[in-house]
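P.,

For your records, the input lines for the assembly:
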Amino acid sequence: MLRNEWLKLRTIRSPWLLLAVTQVLIVVGASGLLARWDTVDADAATRAVAHVGLLSLAPLLLGIMAVAGEYRHQTITATFLSVPRRGRVVGAKLAVYGAAGLGFGVLGTATALAATGVWLGIKGGSVDLGYADLWRTVAGDVVWNVLFALIGVALGALVRNLVAAIGVALAWLALVEGLLGEVLGERLSRWLPFQAGSALGHLPNVHNGLPQWGAGLVLAGYAAVFAAVGLALTTRRDVT
Amino acid sequence: MTDIAVLGLSKQFGAVRAVDDLTFEVPPGQVTGFLGPNGAGKTTTLRMILGLARPTSGRALIGGQPYHELRAPRREVGVVLETTGFHPGRTGRDHLRIAAQIAGLPAGRVDEVLARVDLTAAAGRRVRGYSLGMRQRLGLAAALLGEPRVLILDEPGNGLDPAGMAWLRGTLRDFAAGGGAVLISSHLLAEVAQTVDRVVILAGGRVRYAGDLDGLGAGDAALETAFLRLTGAPAS
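Structure tokens returned:
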């Protein structure tokens, strides 16, 4: 079942394109920061590498495509005919796409470190791989990628319409969470998913955010709830 | 010998009773036509038989078991539905590989069914480049992959040219002759009359006739005449 979901994933082009675009954006993000940074230090390097967390948008979209994509291309019928126990299908997608999120996170980190190394080298420094904060950031960003992948799969299962699911995700991230945050105030808005993700990924623009481990738990909580609801609805609903 | 048994099957969508207390049988060794006007509830019934939709009441059994309890569904039941789609960016061969893998079938089966539906040459191309007829044949290939004992087809003739139709007719008759059960839903009455042994006619969610084709009368137009009469079509 897991091998099957992986086979489905690797026989289309969009995941690979998304991966490629993500790497480019990470390099752009890191470069943009480091090109203008005067002090060449570990903190700068950490901030540059933290872009990997922002690009967790990619596994989110990929996750959405996992289920909603099957509905869009009408392959969901074949999938549920082959595996009538639908819970197994959702479980396998969560596992495989979660692993894809891990892949995105790890590869993104490697790319970010490489780009950062190049920039620091140009400015006469080098990446301090012994800097603890760097690895805390990396760990947080990778986990953020994984959790967003899981949330994506669940969102796709809930909404089923590919365009609507992507629209909801983007609208939430670009607009709705921000607006909701203003209504809720600083203390409560720290618990919203993107803010939690940012705190988890140790992004430099997070002030008074949740502690990293707490943010991780909150985001994992979101993923669990979404996944449970997605699973329940998928098993019960008719396939049109 | 595997058959399909529908027992008191009903489906309610809010206030609308789309399928009302259906009971009929699709025996092995015969081709059974599933006929009815648009909106009669045929597709809904097929979906319930396949576990894609949940009945409001009643049961549908394949070889005595509901679909979701079949241990290897693709090896018992081959399905071609109108809503079966393919990811346009994936090749035909990859689609079949995915279906074969999940059913635990050897990789060689993919090439066998591709040859059977005459898609070997096009198998390496992405599905977005396929004609309607080619997609239909790919769907048939997927249905035959597991060497099932039951075939359920919803408008399989869509997009097939006359040679393709003749091939399909032959394939279904051979399948039934070999002991398989076939349920085929179609609007093409003339084609159906040449292919089937039995018919189940549905209208308004209810069974209007379930029995041998011969029981509807003799002559070329017998099926059409009986169909229009049973489904309450206005007289021309």
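Two observations worth noting. Residues 2-235 of chain A form one domain. The interface with chain B takes residues 1, 3-4, 7-8, 11-14, 69, 73-75, 77-78, 80-85, 236, 238-240 of chain A (CB under 8 Å).

Regards
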